[in-house]
Amino acid sequence: MPRIVTYNVHRCVGTDRRLDVGRIAAVLAQLNPDIVALQELDVGRRRTGRVDQAHQIAEKLAMTHHFHAALQVEEERYGDAILTAYPERLVKSGPLPGYDRVRALEPRGALWVEVMVEGRPVQVINTHLGLVPREQQLQASHLAGNAWLEHADCAWPAILLGDFNATASSVVYRTLTAQLQPARRLARRKSPSSTFPSPLPVLRIDHHFVSPGIIVEDVFAPFDPLTRSASDHLPLVMDFELT
Predict the structure, then answer these.
(1) Where are the beta strands (DSSP E) in 164-205?
(2) How far is residue 29's CA from residue 114's CA, in Å, rounded to a whole number?
(3) Which pLDDT score, from 0 to 100, does residue 173 have?
(4) 162 φ/ψ sector (left φ>0, alpha ψ -120 to 50, else beta)
(5) Backbone torsions φ then ψ of 94, nearest 5 degrees
(6) 185: alpha, beta or left, given left = phi > 0 and alpha = psi -120 to 50?
(7) Beta-carbon neighbour count of residue 65 at 10 Å?
(8) What is the rounded CA–CA span in Å between residue 241 and residue 228?
(9) Cys bridge to 156: 59, 106, 119, 211, which one at CB 3.0-4.6 A?
(10) End-to-end CA, the chain
(11) How far apart are CA 129 and CA 122, in angstroms?
(12) Mean pLDDT over residues 56-84, rounded?
């Protein structure tokens, strides 16, 4: 059964304030995923030793990867990635709209990769929304529109996942579930799936949203000493089948 994971890795700095790319890779390796969506990766940034975190994690997992820089200053980049062991092709990456009334908001983006799952194309879109509610709403509407989910190339089945910084009671959630189904609601098993903060997770702000054509078996957030310390989020795992 295919497995997909979304994980905000907090630039590979754990709750113990230790920078450790290998620890993030170890969290993922023990989950044995087929597709991974990562947020908050540093590539070539001075603060994290100028390493390419996306490349290093993908290499340790024996996966290919695509990275999108939501923020770039000269050689330093910060953003999101999709990794997979399946055949894949990059479809699109790009920025999400900001909210002009609030200055100095962190730029946000999305990354879309078509992944061949059991010989069938699945559209996988990874994103990380902002922190300001109005900003999030603009970004969710953009994702739901013809640039992304309603794009002519975004044929079902599709999975939208990432760190949405929004709970199930939010406008963001309602905007996205007008088109896709929340995987938690569809899951045949009901496992713990709160992801933030990792030492004592009480919030569900990381999500998988799925189109018709995907059967969700389980959605869960592994909670153990390694996941509690590796990042400020827990990874969120989805096991699924294609109809």
Answers:
(1) 181-182
(2) 22
(3) 97
(4) left
(5) 180, 175
(6) alpha
(7) 21
(8) 28
(9) 211
(10) 12
(11) 22
(12) 95
Q: CB of 166 within 8 A of CB of 139?
A: no
- φ/ψ of residue 101, rounded to 5: -75, -15
CA-based nearest residue to 88, from 63, 66, 113, 68:
113
pLDDT tens string 111-166? 999 999 999 999 999 999 999 999 999 999 999 999 999 999 999 999 999 999 99
**Amino acid letter at 221?**
A
Q: Tell me the C-alpha distance between 123 and 239, whole Å.
A: 16
Residue 73 is predicted with a pLDDT of 83
Mean pLDDT of the 197-218 span: 98
List the structure tokens of 61.
């997992």
Domain ranges of the chain: 3-242
Q: How many CB atoms lie within 10 A of CB 132?
A: 16
Cβ-proximal residues to 169 (8 Å cutoff; 6+ apart), any chain: none
The pLDDT confidence band at residue 1, using thresholds 50, 70 and 90, is very high
CA 192 from chain center: how many Å? 18
Edge to edge, what strands does the sheet with 35-43 contain?
A: 64-73, 76-84, 35-43, 3-8, 236-242, 214-220
What's the pLDDT tens digit per position in 82-116? 999 999 999 999 999 987 767 668 899 999 999 99
Q: Which token pair is 124?
A: 């996988």
Query: What share of the chain in percent tops pLDDT 70?
Result: 98
pLDDT of residue 207: 98
Nearest one of 44, 69, 48 to 128, comparing CA atoms = 69
- Within a 10 A sphere around the Cβ of 123, how many other Cβ atoms? 22
